[in-house]
Task: structure prediction
Amino acid sequence: MARYILKRLLQSIPLLLGIVTVTFFMIRLAPGDPMGMYLEPQRQRQVDPEVIELIRKRYGLDQPIHVQYVRWIANVVRGDFGESFRHRRPVNRLLAEAIPYTLQLTVLVLLFDALFGIALGIISAVKQYSALDKTVTLSSLIIYAIPGFWLALMLVLVFSVQVNWFPTSQTRSMDYDFLSSGGKVLDRLWHLVLPVFVMGVASAAGTARYMRNRLLEVLNEEYVVAARARGFPERTVIVKHAVRNALIPIVTIYGLSLPFLLGGATIIESIFAWPGMGRLTVEAVGGRDYPIIMATTMMAATLTVLGNLLADVALTVVDPRVSLEGKPRAP
Amino acid sequence: MRTGCQRRAVRSLTPVRFAAALALAGTLTACGPRSPAASSVTIDSGGDERALGLLSDDDAKFLVFLPLVTRNAQGEIEGVLARSWEHSPDYRSWTIHLRSDVHWQDGVPVTAHDIKFTLELLSHPDVLWMSPGAVSVTVLDDTTYTLTLHRGTEGSPLDEGTVYYPRHLLERLDPAKLAQWEFWIHPVGNGPYRYVRHVVKTMLELEANPDYYRGRPRIERVVLRFLRAGVTDLLSGDVDVHADFNPADLPGIAGDPRFEVYHRFALGWVRAVVWNTRRPALHDPKVRRALTLALDRRELDRALNSPATTPIFDVICSERQLRRGEVPPPLPHDPTTARQLLAEAGWAEVGEDGIRRRGGEALRFVVRVSTLQGMDRTAVIMQAQLRAVGVQMDIQTLDLGAVARRVGAGGFDAELRPMPIHGWDGKAFFGPGAYGGYVNPRAAALLARARAAVNPDEVDQAYRELAPILQTDLPVTFLAPMVFTTVAHRRLRGLSSPYRADPVWHMDELWLENGR
Result:
């Protein structure tokens, strides 16, 4: 297993290098100029073109693109993603500030997804064609089809603007500092309700559909029929034999969710003014903040590779038939 | 199949769960923000806890730090830190006398050394907020200094957009790490408000400075709420003021009696169409004049929710000329004359598609436009107005930087973008190789003269001489100055358009209705 993991990690190096190389050249070839922010009237002052040229020089943007690339790679190898053009602060620090906020959101979304998606999928499959199954199926189809940004705006309008149950945005209340420890936890949860619900409900709807279909397939497998024939209680048959096997592809899906965990959700973070990776990335793309774009791209690529590896490893844990060494395991 | 018992269980659980959710929401709501303190204003801020920093685009820094001068309610310059000033006949050398009753919030007096330190910091090679070597400062005594301008008006003491920082607290810090200075999060200023506390990525609270030289402000607390979420913050009551409101969202609050809308003109910036006169269709000044006459600029303003008082003009001018109404009247909206001029220019034949033709060639061109500040919406309305006189304008939307880059390379028919109203580079605009193709040595010389001049009278004179050339040849059609919109709760009093529309600049003059 360790050998396999090491081999996969080594194989991922050229892949990651390829991804960041393509990204590096693509964003520089794309229309736009990071110095464009100095042309925006919102800045209220006209920046002297000479100053813009000096800033361009300071960030090495006056150098040929291949020189910029070599410098960037050399810095990244040392763990330095450079300085953000807009924030003028180290990218590493900006990422370190954004990642915890994104993790709060995405971990809860995945929990919501796992809890409700899998549970509803199981109930739906076990009670196939019942009113509950039909309701879950129809609801999940509708929810899955609703654009997340629209649902977010509608929920904000109803629950924040109209009835004022939940905050419109942000991660904490203004008087957060004055709350007790318990109050602080509740306050953070209170701010998470709408964004987690918006992201989680769509995700859970998809998982429920997937889980239902997979479980229905498994319930018709011979070993399930055999288990029933041996007189195992229905609960044992479903939980111990059917659900466990139906969960195998779900494990792969969750393994591939790793990039989402740190990558965040761009639109939802923007709507809810959530200072996470998604919002940081959106601002960086809009402002042609190359160091941030490159750092987030590299992080997403690395996590995708790791997520794939994690999914493969997890598969061997949940499915004894799978072997990473290419040799079938003994039954 | 579900048994009847299971069905009942599901039915009974559903309302229980729903009630539990409601209870949780109710409990958590009770944990939510307390009602705003008496005499407190919450402002939507696009920034974060560094919103008061030198590099921040947020104007909130004016709450804590003072500029040398500001504009009064009539738009005229008046002193803040500066008590008075004199200048040499060519306006390049200034002697500034500072007020002696302004102190930093740690009790240290504000002196000319702070001004010198700040200007040197702003032009430091690691900061580059302004050109290195733009100004030189000599301190004569604690309240008097002389300043010499070396690069046009950059660093002018009459720039109300520059605030000044305490030398005694910052001089030992490394300018290369300026963006990371803790000072920007816990600033010590000299303005009407002082730092109280902040909640990370959430808000920054300021309180009235009791030692403010103009007396303690009437509004006791100002809260900057970070990470602007938009109109919902206003509608939910989370903020009282949104100082950079998207005019496209104005219809959403139009009928809401809680809010008042204010506008301020960014008089240094204008929405303008630059015509590429190298294109045969746009080479003839008659055609450019016709296109300008075909545009209903007032209608464009209305469509962008800009106020009816937005000034419209056709020429490059100084802010002072604009403020004083010393610019020639603009060409009117006159589609009849536009059609006539197009016919005179040879575009008389009108095809079945309604587009004018000359020698079989249709009168059509592409305008490159950015999405900034409703430019793309402006283009759509222009398109309809030009279509009415038989001109087909196609729209290509790009981001601002991309527009600038492509236009700079000459590959365009027309460009719609925000442009500085003055300070143009004469050579780039009207000299040989001008990016719009319009070459006029006299116009280039006048622009260069205006750009080099520091004396505002000389600047205005150059623009006066330039005006008839521009109004005749129309290499550029100005639409209107950029407009910024503030939406504020009606309880906040003292705001007005256009010179008191941004509360953070004049918070010390504002008050709350009923003392709250």
Remarks:
- Chain B has two domains: 16-240+491-515, 267-482.
- Residues 16-240+491-515 of chain B form a domain with the D-Maltodextrin-Binding Protein; domain 2 fold (CATH 3.40.190.10).
- Chain B has a mean pLDDT of 86.
- Chain B touches chain A through 72 residues (CB under 8 Å).
